[in-house]
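W.,

You were right to be curious about this one. When I first looked at the sequence I had no strong expectations either way, so I just let the prediction run and decided to look at it fresh. Below is the sequence, 71 residues in total, followed by the output.
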Amino acid sequence: FPTRRSSDLASIFNDSAATLYVKFGTTASITSYTVQLSRYEYYEVPFGYTGRIDGIWSAALGNARICELTA
């Protein structure tokens, strides 16, 4: 995600068999992350978060499904 406005809502769905590591900020890694999403897990970004979000998988298998709603 690029930097977001405070009125935006966002969710992330890990449509992959691999673990997705999501970081609020830059350069996510398997040791530096905010939340990890296992296979087919869903996460809602806290309302009001306006910073950058990065992600990386433990293996390259699948997709992250991103939904952003703007007011």
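Here's what jumped out at me. The chain has a mean pLDDT of 87. And, maybe more interesting for your project: The chain is about 0% helix and 45% strand.

Coffee later to discuss?

I.
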